[in-house]
Amino acid sequence: MGDSTVTSLEDREQAAVPDPVTAPGGPGFLRRLRTPRRPRLWFEILLIAVSYWTYSLIRNAVPEQRGEALRNADWIWRMEHHLGIAVEESVNHAVNSVTWLIVGMNYYYATLHFVVTLGVLVWLYRSHPGRYAATRLVLFATTGVALVGYYLYPLAPPRLMNGSTFVDTVTVHQTWGSMASGDLKHMSNQYAAMPSMHIGWSLWCGLTIFALAKVPWVRVLGLMYPAVTLMVIVSTANHFWLDAVGGMLCLAFGFGVARVWYGALPYALPRTPVGMPQLEVAR
Question: 135 and 189 in contact (C-beta within 8 Å)?
Answer without folding.
Answer: no
